[in-house]
Q: What sequence folds into this?
């Protein structure tokens, strides 16, 4: 796995950042198996992942979240990767109740950045429109990519500290490693 310092301040065109979150069920185990699913995606390579963090919900109610960020190199388009992320969510029991934005969830995989692409359509917005407002995204990202400069030009370390100073609490929970998903046994 490349060292954190080998990432330049700007993402390569084939590198994506994925935010992972869960606050229903065993969120820590869910993030580990979701990370395993990311690692196993065809045409993708998991480059690195952050540690596991805990945070209170932001603009939502429910139990605390487990959070992490992953860096993936892939030959997919952003829309193809988003579709794969939704499939992984679905396999983990993710439901999207109509009219409920930010509802508690078994798994949430957000495509945060894909290279330097800027996209805004009905299916996808890149960069993710709220990533710069979320300590649970920026702090784990700063752990694995400290030299990152956000799309708006703000250094990542500065943005993460700004959010923590503003009161967004985040707790380092420990290491996170990809695990294989439980596969149904033949019956």
A:
């Amino acid at each position: 796995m490349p060292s954190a310092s080998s990432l330049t301040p700007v993402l390569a065109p084939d590198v994506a950042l994925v935010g992972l979150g869960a606050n229903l069920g065993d969120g820590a185990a869910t993030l580990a198996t979701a990370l395993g699913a990311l690692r196993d995606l065809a045409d993708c390579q998991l480059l690195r992942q952050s540690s596991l963090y805990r945070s209170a919900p932001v603009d939502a109610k429910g139990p605390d979240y487990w959070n992490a960020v992953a860096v993936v190199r892939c030959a997919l388009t952003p829309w193809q990767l988003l579709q794969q992320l939704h499939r992984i969510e679905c396999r983990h029991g993710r439901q999207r109740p109509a009219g409920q934005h930010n509802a508690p969830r078994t798994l949430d995989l957000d495509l945060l950045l894909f290279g330097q692409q800027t996209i805004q359509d009905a299916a996808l917005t890149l960069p993710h429109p709220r990533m710069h407002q979320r300590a649970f995204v920026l702090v784990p990202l700063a752990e694995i990519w400290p030299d990152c400069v956000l799309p708006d030009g703000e250094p990542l370390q500065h943005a993460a500290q700004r959010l923590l100073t503003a009161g967004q609490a985040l707790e380092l929970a420990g290491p996170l490693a990809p695990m294989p998903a439980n596969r149904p046994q033949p019956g």
